[in-house]
Structure formats: structure tokens, C-alpha cells
Design goal:
7-stranded antiparallel beta sheet, 23% helix, alpha+beta, globular, 25% strand, 4 helices
Length: 266
């Protein structure tokens, strides 16, 4: 009987761990707020006001990485990530995404405006780098875009997808200090020929099979366990619990803090 109680308690605990993050995600994005006339064709794609004015900052090299909830019901579980870059002297940003629909090469350049809403979802800043030394980082980012190993493949789950692409850039360019949220499904995708390597931040190690089973340990990610594409962990760098559906509970990542500081400057 005691054995049965222990099993029941463990089972209930596991259910709570899975259901609670999803419940929080629902609370943050209530279904009742959806516009019944809104489709992916007419969903808002305007600027979120997060990217600095490239003309006013023409002399400054800038890199930003964004994450926004994916479209429709998928947004309760996962985010889409992308990166924008601007060399010093340039007056426009270049945006890189992986987008699955449309066929052919899934890497898209300037698919949308730099900081545009992702089909109605407000983006969050994960990385915000500006100034001295950033031109070199941009060169490395552009090289990483060219070496993405899955330019003709796309699967929403478990990958490779948009988050697999940004995770690849993070590994190749550790100067980004990229900390991808736990709900960036696909960030841990590794095929059978390359199951062990650097974590997406480039600051740790990762072992994973196809994004559905493995673990990550890194200075940026902390400790994270991946089970069936759902990630659970602890971030020690900026204390937080890493959870599926909502990404993290605790202090925001460094990109969000940097963006907030920049927005407060006159």
C-alpha cells in the first residue's frame, strides 16, 4: 500500500510539473483575447519598438536576438527565434530566420521587419549587443548562417526548426552569450551523427538525440533536462527555474535587462 501511495504521489507530481507551466502560459495569453477574425494572413506584423533606429545609430554595430510566441495554439508551448545584425556604418538591419513554409532553402533573409510582431505575438529580446567589437561578432554570425547544417529541412517538432538555427549560431558565436528559453523547442536538436557538443550558448556541453532526450549544462543555461522535447532546469547565472511552455520563472535573461536599460537612456 505504501508503495502504491509513493507511486501515486510521484505520478501526481509529474502531472503537476507538466500542467502547471501550461496553465501559467494560458493565464499569460488567455484564449478569450484572440481576435476571431484574425488569421496568419492578417495578424499584426508591425514593429514592437525594440530595435534601435538604424539611421540614428548608423555608426554603431548592433546585434539583437528575439523570441516570440509561435502562431495560434502553438504559442502556448513554444517560441520562434530570429536574429538581426547591423554593421557600423550601415543604416539598415539584416534579419535572419528559418521559416518552414514555402519550400526550398528554409533560411530567410529579411523575411519580416527587424523587430516585428510574430503573427501578433510581442517579441522578447534575448541578446542586445552594441558598439566596439560587435562588427567582428556580426562577421562570425554571418559565417554561422552559411554553415547551418539543415538548410533544406524543417520540422516544427522536434526540429530542425527556427530554434535549431539560432542555437547553431549561438554555438558558433559564443560571444553572443545566448541563453535560449526552455520553450524554444528545437534548440536542443542534434542528429544521431552529432549527439554531443557545445550547448546553444557556447558556454557548456550538451548531449541529445533528435531534441527529444538529453541534457545541457552551461554557464548561461545552467542545468537543463530534455524529455520528449520538454525542458526542465535551473539557471544559476540569473536565478530562475526553466520550464516548458513558459520558458523561465525568475530573473529575466541578460538580453531583456540590456534592452530595458537602453530604453531608459535619454
Amino acid at each position: 500500500m505504501d508503495h502504491l501511495k509513493r507511486r501515486t504521489t510521484v505520478l501526481l507530481g509529474l502531472v503537476m510539473v507538466l500542467v502547471l507551466p501550461f496553465g501559467i502560459s494560458l493565464a499569460q495569453n488567455p484564449p478569450g483575447n484572440d481576435n476571431p477574425n484574425e488569421t496568419w494572413r492578417n495578424a499584426p506584423r508591425h514593429s514592437a519598438g525594440l530595435a534601435p533606429d538604424p539611421v540614428a545609430n548608423a555608426d554603431t554595430a548592433i546585434v539583437q536576438v528575439y523570441a516570440a510566441s509561435t502562431y495560434s495554439w502553438r504559442g502556448y508551448f513554444a517560441v520562434h527565434t530570429w536574429i538581426i545584425v547591423k554593421h557600423s556604418g550601415a543604416k539598415t538591419f539584416t534579419r535572419y530566420d528559418v521559416v518552414g513554409w514555402g519550400g526550398g532553402n528554409v533560411i530567410r533573409t529579411n523575411y519580416a521587419i527587424p523587430d516585428g510582431l510574430w503573427f501578433g505575438s510581442e517579441p522578447e529580446v534575448l541578446v542586445d549587443l552594441r558598439g566596439e567589437g560587435v562588427d567582428d561578432i556580426i562577421d562570425d554570425v554571418e559565417k554561422a548562417v552559411q554553415t547551418y547544417p539543415y538548410p533544406q529541412e524543417y520540422r516544427s517538432y522536434p526540429g530542425p526548426n527556427s530554434n535549431t538555427f539560432i542555437a547553431h549560431i549561438g554555438r558558433e558565436v559564443p560571444a553572443l552569450d545566448l541563453d535560449m528559453p526552455a520553450n524554444a523547442i528545437g534548440k536542443d536538436y542534434r542528429d544521431i551523427t552529432n549527439p554531443v557538443g557545445m550547448s546553444p550558448s557556447g558556454t557548456g556541453v550538451q548531449a541529445n538525440l533528435f531534441g527529444v532526450l538529453g541534457f545541457t549544462a552551461g554557464l548561461e543555461e545552467g542545468l537543463e533536462l530534455n524529455i520528449l522535447g520538454l525542458n526542465f532546469g535551473i539557471d544559476f547565472n540569473r536565478p530562475a527555474i526553466r520550464l516548458p511552455s513558459i520558458g523561465r520563472l525568475g530573473l529575466p535573461n541578460s538580453g531583456s535587462l540590456a534592452a530595458a536599460d537602453a530604453s531608459e537612456k535619454p
